[in-house]
């Protein structure tokens, strides 16, 4: 099967486990989604508020994981409504880091669910903050136990974040979940980066596992200076009466103008 000429299904993604690594990007705009599709990226992660029909079209044949935001959604019904809406717009699976009960309810509804193990940003206080997880035997077993729990309740995959590479290898051998690796080494089933890190326009902390391929930040800075210059030139034109020029204005014939003024004079008397 050629993933670049056919939008893959969950079964297709699962069938690739252990055969080749998938590529995955977190994108935020239709332009990024379209660029990823054109580049042959396998999977995209797009958060629910940004998930629209426009984004689905831009994503082309990419398999799209729609992120259900932990904290903004609270009740089981919140998650169910958001998940079903995401799928109706064309999502291929949803990301959910809520409770086991919520995740199971979504999976029981037949919705493909990806959850999160290792460093879970929204719950990092439980593992000591934003740092690697699984660096001790006990911690590594906790990660594996979490994976097994998610597998038992029907998850399709998990984001495996900032876990030692050899721990990821052993976990991969012991689960049928698709492991979406973020700083988990070469043994995960997919390599997952954020588009902003790849493009060099990271706005916050740049993680150690990120790799930058372009410098969009300097390009954005250059474009901002060009914006400022253009706006200044516009202001100068207005201040100096250079804008609007004759060719920027709508014309009226002399005859029609005379008629208009005559009618104005008639109404004034």
UniProtKB/TrEMBL annotation:
Keyword presence, Transmembrane: no
Alphabetized Pfam families for the sequence: Pantoate_transf
BP GO terms, sorted: methylation; pantothenate biosynthetic process
Q: What is its EC number?
A: 2.1.2.11
Enumerate the InterPro entries for this protein: Pantoate_hydroxy_MeTrfase, Pyrv/PenolPyrv_kinase-like_dom, Pyrv_kinase-like_dom_sf
Q: Where is the active site?
A: 161
Q: What GO molecular function annotations does the UniProt record carry, in alphabetical order?
A: 3-methyl-2-oxobutanoate hydroxymethyltransferase activity; magnesium ion binding; methyltransferase activity
Q: Which UniProt keywords apply?
A: Methyltransferase, Pantothenate biosynthesis, Transferase
Is Transferase given among the entry's keywords?
Answer: yes
Instruction: Note the subunit structure.
Output: Homodecamer; pentamer of dimers.
Query: Could you identify this protein by its name?
Result: 3-methyl-2-oxobutanoate hydroxymethyltransferase
């Amino acid at each position: 099967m050629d993933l670049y000429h056919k939008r893959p299904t969950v079964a297709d993604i699962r069938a690739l486990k252990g055969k080749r690594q998938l590529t995955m990007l977190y994108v935020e705009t239709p332009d990024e989604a379209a660029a990823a599709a054109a580049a042959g990226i396998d999977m995209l992660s797009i958060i629910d508020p940004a998930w629209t029909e426009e984004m689905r079209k831009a994503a082309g044949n990419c398999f799209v994981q729609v992120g259900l935001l932990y904290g903004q959604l609270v009740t089981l019904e919140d998650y169910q409504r958001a998940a079903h809406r995401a799928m109706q717009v064309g999502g291929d699976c949803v990301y959910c880091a809520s409770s086991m009960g919520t995740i199971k309810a979504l999976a029981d509804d037949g919705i493909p669910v990806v959850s999160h193990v290792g460093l879970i940003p929204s719950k990092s206080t439980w593992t000591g903050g934003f740092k690697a997880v699984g660096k001790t035997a006990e911690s590594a077993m906790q990660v594996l136990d979490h994976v097994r729990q998610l597998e038992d309740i029907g998850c399709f995959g998990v984001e495996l974040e900032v876990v030692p590479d050899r721990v990821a290898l052993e976990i991969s051998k012991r689960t049928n979940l698709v492991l979406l690796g973020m700083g988990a080494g070469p043994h995960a089933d997919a390599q997952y980066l954020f588009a902003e890190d790849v493009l060099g326009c990271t706005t916050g902390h740049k993680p150690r596992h990120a790799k930058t391929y372009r410098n969009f930040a300097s390009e954005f800075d250059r474009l901002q200076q060009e914006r400022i210059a253009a706006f200044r030139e516009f202001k100068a034109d207005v201040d100096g009466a250079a804008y609007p020029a004759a060719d920027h204005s709508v014309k009226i014939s002399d005859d029609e103008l005379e008629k208009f003024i005559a009618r104005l004079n008639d109404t004034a008397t």
